Task: inverse folding
């Protein structure tokens, strides 16, 4: 077979078709055309919606592992945040509870101080504000220690008041502190006046189970005393100013076998919980001095109204 008759064209398997440059230009022009047509006429929107609908199940299945991983992480993170928030809430609750207790105590103390200041403004005697430090060490005595003493002008015998009434009396004064014997002490007595009847009597400390009572002793069985009567200081002892609240009658027992009635009273002052008090100067210190009694010889030598200067009666004939 002569060489000139051989077919030099490549077999169909290796046929290349159009050149690569031609394909690039064709598909670039087609892409530009489709973009311009979709921008102007929205030709591809239905096709895009259809493809999104068809591919949604595949997308949902592909996203499930990612969502599960994110959900697990969010669960543990949320659990940790919730536990931390609960711990902070418990701590804040404990702090707020402590502050609430302090606020209630401060409110009560503020009310008592206001009442004490109001009482101080109504008193005409010299007064000194003091604070109760602690109870006396003697368990059989009703005494407290205050933070004012001789250096602050507190003298033995000075009356002590709180915002509700008479609390007691200073029985021992030191340079910086003083000892106050409460009204309910068994050795304490105070002259009182029944504000309803005007009858004066003496109230004594009544040592009982709780040690917070007073007793009106030596009152006749038919005395006009009723439960609810208010007792105030009479002011005749020269220690307590008159008109200070002392106690309220709580029990009246008239016994046939006794000539005296048994009368119990509740103190007006906060005997067991007083914290701020007023120390007054004894009422006797503000009274004018008592007149000095003249000796008997001076009274005998003093001429009377019917005696002459020489000590002889005048002659009515002269």
Result:
């Amino acid at each position: 077979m002569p060489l000139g008759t051989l077919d030099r064209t490549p077999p169909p398997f290796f046929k290349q078709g159009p050149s690569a440059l031609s394909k690039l230009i064709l598909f670039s022009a087609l892409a530009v055309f489709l973009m311009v047509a979709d921008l102007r006429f929205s030709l591809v929107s239905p096709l895009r919606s259809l493809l999104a609908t068809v591919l949604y199940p595949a997308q949902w299945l592909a996203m499930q592992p990612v969502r599960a991983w994110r959900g697990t992480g969010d669960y543990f993170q949320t659990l940790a945040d919730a536990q931390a928030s609960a711990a902070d809430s418990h701590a804040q609750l404990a702090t707020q509870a402590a502050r609430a207790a302090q606020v209630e105590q401060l409110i009560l103390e503020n009310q008592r101080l206001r009442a004490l200041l109001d009482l101080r403004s109504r008193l005409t005697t010299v007064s000194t504000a003091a604070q109760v430090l602690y109870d006396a060490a003697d368990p059989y005595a009703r005494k407290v220690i205050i933070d004012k003493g001789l250096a602050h002008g507190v003298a033995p015998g000075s009356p002590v008041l709180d915002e509700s009434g008479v609390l007691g009396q200073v029985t021992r004064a030191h340079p910086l502190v003083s000892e106050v014997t409460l009204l309910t002490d068994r050795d304490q007595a105070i002259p009182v006046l029944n504000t309803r009847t005007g009858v004066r009597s003496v109230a004594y400390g009544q040592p009982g189970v709780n040690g917070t009572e007073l007793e009106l002793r030596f009152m006749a069985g038919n005395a006009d005393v009723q439960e609810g009567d208010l007792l105030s200081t009479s002011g005749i002892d020269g220690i307590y100013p008159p008109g200070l609240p002392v106690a309220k009658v709580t029990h009246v027992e008239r016994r046939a076998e006794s000539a005296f009635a048994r009368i119990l009273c509740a103190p007006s002052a906060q005997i067991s919980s007083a914290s701020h008090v007023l120390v007054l100067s004894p009422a006797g210190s503000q009274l004018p001095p008592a007149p000095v009694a003249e000796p008997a010889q001076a009274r005998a030598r003093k001429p009377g109204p019917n005696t002459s200067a020489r000590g002889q009666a005048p002659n009515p004939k002269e």
Remarks:
- Residues 45-122 form the longest helix (78 residues).
- The chain has two domains: 19-122, 127-286.
- Residues 22 and 28 are 10 Å apart (CA to CA).
- Residues 307-314 have pLDDT under 50 and may be disordered.
